């Protein structure tokens, strides 16, 4: 069975450590992850801005890259959501690509979905003796309904104190191009989100989408606050090494 | 009605009928039809099936109704007989120093004998003489007294219907409203009340069907709850039986 | 936005003003939180909320899909009830009809209860030009009418005003100084508006729902002013959006379950009135004459449009405003139209069919989907926002800089080798601006981002560069796959072949 990593452009360029953690964590369960190199980006930045032709050009690289994969796993609920919810819409007038989109849609999983729903892993055996708070990113939790999976995984991490984030379900203000186009509104949103993170007095902020994490951590660093920001895959892998 | 009004109404009526075909035909066209749709099958009518099974015992209906009515700021009491209800109304009227009461012209209230119990108070019976200005009577009343047509325990709601003998103003314009709920009219769900209206012939429906759930309220000023903005600010629900 | 004062043209400029108004932001946050928590509590207490939402959606979908039938049925029944029914293709026609009726009554005064349709039409202004006083009687609407403003929230119109500002407005009206005490202020309004109700020749209402089978119109409210308006004056004029229809009273139970809980967290609004025609001859009160003006005003543009028809399912509860993190920060006026929040961002351009002018409010969303999650009839507003943006681009209204940017995006992302070179260029080029692993510069497109954030620098090695060595390292760590996991994976594949995986 071929399990392929859809790294996402953001993790590829800025957060390669997230992909590495996923690959290493899955290796512990005998899952050998492959990385088809022709993949680029899911096309969401262009899609959300209304530039669907441009989004399609980007999306085609994924459809080609994962054509013969059995499972496609990604460290982003948002990019997974793009494939799950919008690829069929994007290619609704192109029967060949539509068929490919539907096949990709069926085999694509966000990382925790794959771990919990497919592999049945709910406890990776990690130890992480820190105060942690969790920001559930909007697309993962709302579009894909990923709510229980990360919670189960985190609750089973030994020594970790999980502190509820106030107004956790509120968007951090990233929204891709929104953060640039409507920077002032986005700034108000991320400032409030960071404030809520600081209220928890957590040492670590964990999430499932590096876009949101980059946004919140960018503001925390700007404020000079030493909160460590991680993807859950990183946290779990670090915890496994500690165990 | 003045001549000019009648002419206008006739003219508007003509225009309306002429426009109807175009307006609704336009909707049909947008929906991809050449003619107006025939009566469709309505597979999702009303509440979900699991909901229509819900039915509470009388005791529970009374308890839940009272809880709900009180939770929004109303006063609720339960009496065994109309006589006890009358005593209560008379006592409260004296306490509130009510000078004018307006009540519906309903048989239960005609038999209540409130007039004898409160000889000093001016008690008007809605519309018993159509020549008078009944809205003004209601606006001047301290208490409006009604017997409800239906009540709903799940939401703490009373339902009053208008007629020749039942003014819409009586439950609306006075400072205080008192509503008698004969216990057999207290249902569990709103749907049980709705079947009366869906089941009735259109021409038998009253002009006004009012569902009332507590005292008039507003939070429009800084979210600060204000009671009695336009409708009655003090409301009593008196379950009898 | 006062009358006569021109408001800034873009949502960016309008939100800039809002973001710098501390009181406004606090007030909006406080109110939306209260309403949001109320909804959460009420829907949880009621239980089976998803089933109710689904039922609400199905009823609305069904009704709109057969709107020609149901609207026609409503019209025939309302007429049989003695209502004068009129049709208005646009706002102008609706205003003209109202004016004709008002003129024939020689009306001097019209009392109004809250109606979003009437806000669409700007009817108060038209009445005043005719010398007819139009009085808003909902407490919040009355306050903003005195202030010469427009509502900034569907449910709480004066969300942006504090009690001191309100006391000042009402004192002017009272001719004496009123203290900033809610109950005293509300008491003044009660007395003042009582006079207005009794004087007015015409009562004007909106319409929450219209029941096709009986020709009844339904109003939800808490204050009792809508009952006043539809009971006291001799003539009632109801402005009704043509999509307000539901088939039966049984369906009203579903709407009555969803609307108040979603709007304010109430089990039911204090008053829900179903009015079926003018007063009967023998009745002692109620309007002698009743008009219903059925308004299109852009609504039919959504019909038959697969991406936007569901907009007509909206029951105007305001839950999407209360859930929206953007609304939370900028409030209603920044949206610039009659309707604000997520529903306004879609409805305003959709009703006016002028994507080019209004597209910018479709950009004022991070597409987080909170609106969809809050919507009691499950309207996918977050998707519609993307569709609007797409239509703007397809029609050629895209901004030049963005167009070029997106062409560049496509050029890079259509080819992984090009993407790799661009990342490489970035890794080298950033050396000019990286300090302690961060990019803090505020030049060019980074200006907005870096005004409250730092950008992480690119690591020396991207994932795709790291891959070849990583795969070698991991090879040595690989554990054998357990039977259990293998079986689970095989099962997942099999399930998929049978079409078994559901999505989100």
From TrEMBL, chain A:
Name of this chain's protein: Fe-S oxidoreductase
Domain of life: Bacteria
Transmembrane region(s): none
InterPro entries: Cys_rich_dom
Signal sequence range: none
Domain Cysteine-rich: 3-84, 132-216
GO molecular function, one term: oxidoreductase activity
A Gene Ontology cellular-component term: cytosol
TrEMBL record, chain B:
Coiled coil: none
Tree of life domain: Bacteria
InterPro entries membership: FTHF_cligase-like_sf (IPR024185), LUD_dom (IPR003741), NagB/RpiA_transferase-like (IPR037171)
Residues covered by the LUD domain: 62-240
Listed name of the protein: Lactate utilization protein C
UniProtKB/TrEMBL annotation, chain C:
A Pfam family it matches: LUD_dom
Keywords of this entry: 4Fe-4S, Electron transport, Iron, Iron-sulfur, Metal-binding, Repeat, Transport
Keyword DNA damage tagged: no
One GO MF term: metal ion binding
The organism's place on the tree of life at top rank: Bacteria
Listed GO biological process terms: lactate metabolic process
Domain 4Fe-4S ferredoxin-type intervals: 304-335
NCBIfam families registered for this protein in UniProt: LutB/LldF family L-lactate oxidation iron-sulfur protein
Protein name: Iron-sulfur cluster-binding protein
Annotated source species: Paenibacillus selenitireducens
């Amino acid at each position: 069975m071929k399990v392929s990593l859809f790294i996402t452009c953001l993790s590829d360029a800025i957060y390669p450590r997230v992909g590495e953690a996923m690959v290493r964590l899955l290796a512990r369960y005998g899952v050998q992850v492959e990385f088809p190199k022709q993949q680029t980006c899911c096309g969401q930045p262009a899609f959300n801005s209304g530039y669907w032709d441009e989004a399609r050009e980007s999306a085609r690289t994924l459809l080609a890259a994962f054509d013969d994969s059995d499972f496609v796993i990604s460290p982003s609920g948002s990019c997974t959501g793009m494939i799950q919810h919008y690829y069929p819409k994007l290619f609704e007038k192109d029967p060949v690509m539509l068929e490919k989109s539907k096949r990709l849609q069926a085999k694509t999983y966000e990382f925790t979905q794959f771990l919990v729903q497919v592999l049945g892993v709910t406890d990776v055996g990690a130890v992480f003796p820190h105060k942690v708070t969790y920001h559930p990113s909007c697309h993962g939790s709302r579009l894909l309904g990923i709510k229980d999976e990360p919670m189960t995984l985190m609750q089973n991490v030994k020594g970790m104190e999980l502190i509820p984030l106030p107004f956790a379900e509120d968007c951090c203000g990233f929204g891709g191009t929104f953060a640039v186009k409507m920077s002032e509104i986005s700034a108000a949103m991320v400032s409030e989100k960071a404030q809520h993170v600081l209220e928890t007095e957590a040492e670590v902020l964990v999430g499932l989408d590096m876009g949101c994490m980059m946004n919140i951590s960018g503001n925390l660093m700007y404020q000079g606050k030493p909160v460590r920001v991680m993807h859950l895959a990183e946290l779990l892998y670090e915890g496994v090494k500690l165990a | 009605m003045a001549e000019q009004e009648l002419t206008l109404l006739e003219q508007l009526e003509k225009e309306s009928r002429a426009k109807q075909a175009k307006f609704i035909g336009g909707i049909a066209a947008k929906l991809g039809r050449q003619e107006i749709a025939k009566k469709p099958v309505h597979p999702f009518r009303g509440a979900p099936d699991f909901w229509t099974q819900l039915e509470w015992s009388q005791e529970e209906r009374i308890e839940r109704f009272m809880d709900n009515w009180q939770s929004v700021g109303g006063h609720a009491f339960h009496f065994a007989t109309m006589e006890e209800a009358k005593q209560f109304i008379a006592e409260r009227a004296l306490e509130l120093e009510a000078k004018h009461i307006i009540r519906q012209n309903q048989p239960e209230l005609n038999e209540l004998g409130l007039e004898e119990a409160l000889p000093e108070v001016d008690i008007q019976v809605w519309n018993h003489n159509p020549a008078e200005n009944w809205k003004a009577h209601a606006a001047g009343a301290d208490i409006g007294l009604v017997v409800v047509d239906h009540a709903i325990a799940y939401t703490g709601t009373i339902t009053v219907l208008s007629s020749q003998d039942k003014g819409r103003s009586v439950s609306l314009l006075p400072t205080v409203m008192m509503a008698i709920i004969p216990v057999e009219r207290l249902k569990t769900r709103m749907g049980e009340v709705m079947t009366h209206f869906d089941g009735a012939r259109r021409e038998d429906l009253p002009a006004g069907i009012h569902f009332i759930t507590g005292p008039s309220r507003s939070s429009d000023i800084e979210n600060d709850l204000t009671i009695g903005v336009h409708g009655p600010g003090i409301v009593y629900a008196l379950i009898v039986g | 936005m006062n009358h006569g004062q021109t408001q800034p043209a873009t949502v960016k400029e309008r939100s800039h003003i809002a973001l710098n108004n501390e009181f406004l932001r606090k007030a909006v946050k406080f109110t939306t939180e209260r309403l949001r928590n109320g909804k959460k509590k009420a829907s949880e207490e009621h239980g089976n909320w998803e089933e109710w939402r689904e039922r609400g959606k199905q009823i609305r979908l069904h009704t709109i899909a057969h709107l020609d039938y149901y609207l026609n049925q409503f019209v025939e029944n309302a007429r049989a009830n003695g209502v004068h029914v009129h049709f208005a293709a646009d706002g102008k026609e609706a205003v003209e009809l109202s004016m004709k009726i008002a003129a024939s009554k020689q009306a001097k005064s019209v009392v109004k209860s809250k109606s979003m349709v009437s806000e669409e039409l700007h009817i108060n202004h038209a009445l005043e030009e005719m010398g007819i006083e139009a009085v808003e009687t909902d407490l919040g609407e009355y306050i903003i009418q005195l202030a010469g403003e427009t509502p900034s929230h569907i449910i709480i119109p004066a969300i942006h005003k504090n009690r001191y500002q309100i006391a000042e407005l009402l004192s002017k009206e009272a001719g004496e100084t009123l203290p900033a005490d809610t109950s005293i202020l509300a008491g003044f309004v009660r007395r003042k508006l009582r006079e207005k109700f009794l004087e007015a020749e015409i009562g004007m209402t909106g319409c929450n729902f219209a029941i096709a089978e009986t020709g009844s119109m339904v109003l939800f409210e808490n204050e009792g002013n809508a009952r006043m308006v539809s009971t006291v004056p001799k003539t009632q004029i109801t402005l009704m959006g043509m999509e307000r229809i539901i088939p039966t009273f049984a369906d009203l139970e579903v709407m009555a379950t969803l609307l108040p809980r979603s709007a304010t967290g109430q089990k039911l609004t204090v008053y829900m009135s179903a009015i079926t025609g003018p007063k009967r001859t023998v009745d002692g009160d109620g309007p002698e004459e009743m008009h219903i003006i059925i308004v299109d005003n852009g609504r039919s543009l959504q019909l038959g449009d697969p991406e936007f028809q569901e907009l007509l399912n909206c029951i105007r509860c305001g839950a999407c405003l209360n859930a929206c993190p953007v609304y939370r920060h900028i409030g209603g006026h920044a949206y610039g139209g009659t309707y604000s929040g997520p529903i306004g961002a879609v409805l305003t351009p959709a009703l006016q069919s002028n994507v080019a002018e209004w597209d910018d409010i479709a950009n004022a969303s991070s597409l987080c989907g909170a609106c969809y999650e809050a919507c009691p009839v499950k309207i996918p507003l977050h998707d519609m926002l993307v569709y609007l943006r797409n239509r703007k681009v397809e029609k050629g209204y895209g901004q030049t800089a963005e167009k070029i940017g997106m062409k560049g995006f496509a050029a890079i992302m259509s080819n992984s080798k090009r993407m790799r070179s661009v990342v490489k260029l970035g890794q080298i080029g950033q050396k000019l601006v990286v300090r302690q692993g961060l990019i803090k510069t505020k030049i060019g497109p980074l200006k907005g981002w870096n005004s409250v954030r730092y950008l992480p620098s690119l690591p020396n090695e991207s994932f795709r560069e790291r891959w070849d060595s990583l795969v070698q390292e991991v090879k040595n760590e690989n554990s054998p796959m357990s039977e259990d996991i293998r079986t689970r994976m095989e099962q997942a594949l099999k399930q998929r072949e049978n079409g078994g995986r559901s999505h989100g």
